[in-house]
Structures are given as structure tokens and as C-alpha cells.
Design brief:
The chain has 222 residues and is of the alpha/beta class. 42% of the residues lie in helices and 22% in strands. It has one domain. It is globular, with a radius of gyration of 18 Å. 28% of the residues are buried.
């Protein structure tokens, strides 16, 4: 982590309410992936500031918002304000550029792994695998935004390839912990882990994994 995020971390802990953590079963200690509901900006902040294992987690973060050049376009298409609202022209002309000045330095200082959506996607996967092999944990938010403050009721699955990569590199099944971040009750609800079955292909078990994750994230129709 960088000094900028270290300072912000102290600020967040002083100004935000403490989060309790409820584990369905005791944490096993293996390198793992915590798969979380997004809850806007609060979800990622809570996971890297208040989560019990926050010192050992790295959150996946869209590279588009970590880059000063691409940040404005990302903000415009990511539903930062209600489309068609009365102040949309003002928001459109100001918020993306304010965000581009502030957000990228913060995210680059935070414990993040940039997520690319082009040919560089393997950079994301290789960095993630390296961190897992070093004993760290990943934090991934697989919900797809569907509008201002809303998400589609299905889970992105491309990231699950990390399970196969981890098995090939270590011979072990990766543990996936669903984490429901309840901002109203100020609580992390951590379900029992889904363990990648090393005796089956990802395709053969993907539907089962997604269904289990959806239950833990309280996504109805995933």
C-alpha cells in the first residue's frame, strides 16, 4: 500500500462505523477469494479497511477508473448519477474530471489489482495468481451494474478461470467465500466456502459454483 491510502485508511476508520463479521464456519486460513456484493463504493472500502483480513487482501479494480485518461469515460458510463436527472448536464461536465484528478491516485495507492478487459486480461490473472501463491487473498465483486445503484441479478463468471490456474500451479482447490456486505447493519456475512473440485473441469462445476455464490450474495435470480 502507498502512503496516500494509509492516511485514508486511518480517516475511514475514524469516521465510519465499525463492521462486525459473522462467519458461517471458521476461516480455514488458505489463500482464497472473497466474492462480495458491490454496494457502490462502500463495498470495496469496507473490504480493504474494516474486514478482519484487510491487511492481506487485494481487491480487483476496473483499470479504466485507475487511469487518469480513461477515468472520465468510465465515470460517465458507470451510472454515477441518475440518467436524465435535472442536473445531468452539470454532473457530466464536472464529476468525471474531478474523479479523474482524485480517484486514480487513491486506487493506485490502495491494495488493488487492475482488471483489464482487453488482451491484457492475462496480466490481471497472472498478478492474481502470484498474490495467491504468496499467501494473499483476492476480493472480487462479480455483479454487473444495471443502472444507478442497481445490478443485474446474475454473476459475471470470467474471473473463475483463476480457479483452474491456481489448481495447475499448486495442485490445490481454491476456496471461494461469498461475503454479503450489509451496510445497514454494518456487518460482513461470510458464508462457508465453495471449494473448487480439482477432479472436475471448471465447465462441469461452474453452474454449481455460481448458484452457491448467488445464495451467499443474496442474488435472487442468478
Amino acid at each position: 500500500m502507498g502512503k496516500l491510502f494509509d492516511g485514508l485508511k486511518v480517516f475511514f476508520r475514524l469516521t465510519m462505523k465499525k463492521m462486525d463479521t459473522v462467519w458461517e464456519e471458521p476461516f480455514r486460513g488458505e489463500p482464497c477469494v472473497f466474492v462480495c456484493n458491490h454496494v457502490g463504493a462502500l463495498g470495496p472500502i469496507d473490504m480493504v479497511v474494516h474486514f478482519p483480513l484487510c491487511e492481506d487482501v487485494l481487491a480487483w479494480c476496473n483499470e479504466g477508473i485507475m487511469n487518469r485518461k480513461t477515468c472520465p469515460a468510465y465515470v460517465r458510463q458507470d451510472y454515477w448519477w441518475e440518467p436524465g436527472c435535472r442536473l445531468e448536464p452539470l454532473y457530466n461536465a464536472t464529476i468525471p474530471y474531478i474523479a479523474a484528478a482524485i480517484v486514480p491516485p487513491v486506487l493506485q495507492s490502495a491494495p488493488t489489482i487492475p482488471v483489464y478487459h482487453d488482451a491484457r486480461v492475462m496480466t490481471t490473472m497472472r498478478k492474481s495468481l502470484t498474490q495467491l501463491k504468496n499467501g494473499k487473498h483476492l476480493v472480487i465483486f462479480p455483479e454487473q451494474p444495471s443502472g444507478h445503484g442497481t445490478h443485474h441479478e446474475w454473476i459475471n463468471t470470467g474471473w473463475l478461470a483463476i480457479c483452474t490456474m491456481y489448481y495447475r500451479a499448486t495442485g490445490k482447490g481454491l476456496h471461494l467465500y461469498p461475503v454479503y456486505i450489509d451496510t445497514k447493519e454494518h456487518r460482513f456475512e461470510v458464508s462457508r466456502p465453495i471449494v473448487f473440485d480439482t477432479g472436475r473441469t471448471l465447465d462441469a462445476q461452474q453452474d454449481e459454483i455460481v448458484e452457491a455464490l448467488a445464495r451467499g450474495l443474496k442474488i435472487k435470480d442468478a
